[in-house]
Design brief:
By secondary structure, this protein is an alpha/beta fold. Helix content is about 35%, strand content about 20%. Helix 8 crosses helix 9. Bound molecules: zinc ion.
Length: about 325
């Protein structure tokens, strides 16, 4: 038997056929369509599952269950998507509709949660019973695993690390508040800090690497210039890493998991980011004379969404 993992994203939906040892044996993707009714969106997903299972040389009977990760909040118990802004879903009965097209058990959860589960079973945090996965991209999310299970809160709204308030009078956030953590720790934040710095120091190598176009600065541009020991880039890099260290320490102060896992685009900086971060975060942990959780980089990459979704059942 195999399990199906569906990773719903804002631009594409990935479907993976996942073996019992958590390997993706076949995968396909369809573009995200928000211009068609909800029921038709789910029919396209179910059709993609059927064509992918066929391509793997299997039939519908070989499917044990279907798991779905969404960029929003859902009730794992009822199978209802409570809110998923990217898809235009608001209180929609995902499981009830999907099973019209494919009669299999369906589980659904938030995408950061399923990636956290994947890493904790088959990735860098395998073998631990508690971990926090922090994907760092345009924004910041988190997936919390406690006692081997996803913890998304009593009302499915927990794990919003990105919107923990860092600075009461800080940078405005997309959520409507000011000074949220993701305004200081996301890739978007790093780019903002770099733009502010090069406006004052246009001779920085960041500008050369961005082709002298401030709008082309990416997180990688800053990391590359910092690796080359550009002074402006190093200053931005250390300030950003310090913010991230405070975020990591806040997670430890609250939950003290066995391990913290960084994912998303920024984590591709690898040990260049991890080494100074590991030096910095203990000073913000209250009981820092005790053993502290290590911070590691996720290993499953973009496959974590499909693998973790398949693990939901
Ligand atoms: Zn916010």
């Amino acid at each position: 038997m195999v399990k199906i993992g569906i990773d719903v994203g804002g631009t594409g939906i990935k479907v993976g056929v996942v073996s019992e040892d958590y390997q993706i044996i076949q995968e396909d993707a369809i573009p995200t369509r928000t211009d068609i009714p909800f029921e038709e969106q789910l029919k396209l997903m179910a059709d993609c599952v059927l064509s992918t299972i066929k391509a793997a040389g299997l039939t519908e009977d070989d499917i044990e269950s279907v798991g779905v990760g969404i960029p929003g909040i859902a009730s794992a118990r009822t199978g209802e998507v409570i809110k998923c802004t990217n898809m235009g879903w608001h209180h929609v009965p995902f499981r009830d509709v999907f099973t019209k097209y494919l009669k299999k058990p369906v589980c659904i959860d938030n995408d950061a949660n399923v990636a956290a589960l994947a890493e904790s079973v088959a990735g860098v945090s395998a073998g631990t019973s508690s971990s926090v996965f922090i994907p760092i991209g345009t924004g910041i999310g988190s997936g919390i695993i406690l006692n081997g299970k996803i913890w998304s809160g009593a009302h499915h709204i927990g794990g919003e690390l990105g919107h923990v308030i860092f600075d009461l009078d800080g940078v405005p956030c997309t959520c409507g508040n000011h000074g949220c953590l993701e305004r200081y720790c996301s890739a978007t934040a790093l780019i903002r800090m770099a733009r502010e710095a090069v406006e004052k120091n246009p001779e920085s190598q960041i500008m050369q690497l961005a082709g002298r176009d401030i709008s082309r600065i990416e997180a990688k541009t800053v990391f590359d210039a910092a690796r080359n020991k550009d002074e402006v880039a190093l200053k931005v890099f250390y300030h950003y890493t310090d913010c991230l260290a405070q975020a990591v320490a806040s997670v430890i102060n609250l939950l003290d998991p066995e391990v913290i896992v960084l994912g998303g685009g920024v984590s591709k900086a690898g040990s260049f980011l991890l080494d100074p971060l590991t030096e910095m975060y203990p000073k913000y942990v209250v009981f820092n004379d005790q053993p502290l959780p290590p911070v590691k980089i996720a290993v499953l990459g973009s496959e974590a969404g499909m693998i973790g979704a398949a693990m939901l059942s």
